[in-house]
Write a structure and sequence with these properties.
- The complex is a heterodimer of chains A (about 400) and B (about 300).
- Chain A has about 400 residues and is an alpha+beta fold.
- Chain A contains 14 helices and 19 strands.
- In chain A, strands 1, 8, 9, 10, 11, 12 and 13 form a seven-stranded antiparallel beta sheet that branches.
- In chain A, helix 12 packs parallel to helix 13.
- Chain A is elongated and about 80 Å long.
- Chain B has two domains: about 120 residues, NAD(P)-binding Rossmann-like Domain (Rossmann fold, 3-Layer(aba) Sandwich), CATH 3.40.50.720; about 150 residues, Succinyl-CoA synthetase domains (Rossmann fold, 3-Layer(aba) Sandwich).
- Chain B is of the alpha/beta class and about 300 residues long.
- In chain B, helix 7 links the parallel strand 12 and strand 13.
- Chain B has nine helices and 14 strands.
- The two termini of chain B are about 20 Å apart.
- In chain B, helix 3 packs parallel to helix 4, helix 6 packs parallel to helix 7 and helix 7 packs parallel to helix 8.
- Classes of the chains: A alpha+beta (about 400), B alpha/beta (about 300).
- At the A-B interface, helix 7 and helix 10 of A face helix 4 and helix 5 of B.
Amino acid sequence: MAQSIGVGGERMDIHEYQAKELFRAVGIPVPAGEVATTPDEAARIAQELGGTVVVKAQVHAGGRGKAGGVKLATHADEAREHASNILGMEIKGLTVGKVLVTAAEEIASEAYVGVLVDRRTQSPVFMVSPEGGIDIEEVAATNPDAILRLHVDPRYGLLRHQAYRLADFLYSDPKLAKQATRIVTLLYRAFTANSCSMAEINPLIVTADGEVKAIDAKVSIDDSGLRGLPALETLRDVGAEPASETKAREADLSFVKLDGDVGCCVNGAGLAMATMDLVKYYGGEPANFLDIGGSSNPDKVVAALEIIASDPNVKAILFNIFGGITRCDDVARGIVEATRTTRIDPPIVIRLTGTNETEAMEILNQAGFSAFTSMDEVVERAVQLAAEA
Amino acid sequence: MAVFIDTETRLVVQGITGRDGSFHTLQMAESGTRVVAGVTPGKGGQVFEIENGGRVPIFNTVDRAVKETGANTSVIYVPPAFAAGAIMEAADAGIAFIVAITEGIPVLEMSKANAFVRDRGSRLLGPNCPGLISPGKAKVGIIPAQITTPGPVGVVSRSGTLTYEAVDQLTRAGIGQTTCIGIGGDPIIGTNFIDCLSAFRDDRDTEAIVMIGEIGGTDEQEAATWAKENLGKPVVGFIAGQTAPPGRRMGHAGAIISGSSGTAEEKIRSFKDNGVAVATRPVEITDLIKESLGI
């Protein structure tokens, strides 16, 4: 949630069971549970936990309950049955490959606790509400007074009185507030230790015995923070993203797959977006966003071209390169190299300008390519070629 | 005149001996920038040679560089793991204007560094930005000088190469620039659109402004509202990312549409409501600037 005030940063979403591990590691109370990839495994975990369990689909999408991806089971056989239904299920286009089997709790009340980086104040901000268990954006829209926002000075961290203020907003019972003070403090610790851009407990529950616990967890990790925390990289679920995006990340390319037929290879995110917009302006549809980045070597260009060409929807490929740090001759060499080693069917149209433009033109001309110098011309031509294909 | 950097700029390069740092130091010196010092811990006492026999002394710390050379501006090319520290070191040494080129600084670290810089009264541009250039006077960062020329237009943008595209078109049409500024695409940055518009307002030579934004956040909308009330100079705007689907980041860390906020449509509407002339394609920026300058 809370994205209306702006989660920042390139980020990696992790699954609920992984987020709960991070929470458990700092001491936040979460129900016992384990992740399973087969119905039998789910049954074994349910057996070991004893009592009623919840079987929960692990996908990077909200609305799991509504989609039938969250089920109660009173015994191991029932857990097996639910797991076999849920595993392989599609939720918002994502296939469920794992379920979390966790002890069911008797819920007396549900609250919301979240912390994220707010780009407007440039600091972490906590948001808490006694109305949990539902979409917090709905609470923000219908009952804004039920949400407390508190900004944290990142240099001092969450101060004790601030933690207590958050807890006191959630619970009037001092015993509950004491537990919640500890939980928000630990949540901030998990948030900073794991370089998160967002960490959320929804709901934070009070059990029938008066215990405060996190029964759902959602965490996004700031990609830039991963460099210093290699252990977290192993949490990435590559099965949860298109294969082309995995390949692009491995080649250090910024890539997003879209549904159109004009493949785009551009240097710089802003220029890449403007190029996609221009494709649309001339009546086409972009097949992807791809930023080859600065100081790109020919190898990166080869990888980019392979990724774009492997999309069967692509009918034409356009290059739009404005050389600054990126040298046009490097890109030209990459294009020539890629077309020599790999069979690329769609026609390629190229626009190169800036650093080492003349050398680049020579390389391309020798290989039989012609290049444009204007962005509008190249985009219009690519759209035309895609339409004719 | 120009904004933020000019012939009075005395530059220290943090990370001068690195691959990017050394390459761009030569380029900045070639564009007329007075590069007075370099900093690489452990290499103090060495000298970095620039063309025409220039010799730039290297120091271990920014503090020494400032005391020995009177540096007043710094540019940072150090790797992401050390960049937030380098920013705070520059602010601690009394550098008034700090430009961070480095990409990939963790957001939480930037949030601390930014607060530190503000408390010391320094200005930070970036991180993850191409820097800025006042054509004919000084260049700090990586914007190619050959696509710029002196003149009456101020350019401010969240993007790198898209800025080059716009500036190149202006220059080819014979329209020069006072200063071209890339503020960076990260969610946490030191200098925002309003800071730049405000500097252009106070700059006598700037007659019109190009503002290039992207999807994500609300900076452009706030800048447009501010401009209507306070600027008194014509603005031409462009927003990239009209075709970007919600929820997907488009390379720039800041360029993600979250919830209902930060769409291109919303930004364009805000531009129009506040009297900013909107270009639907980059090529239209030049035509609209010509109109606003009456040429």
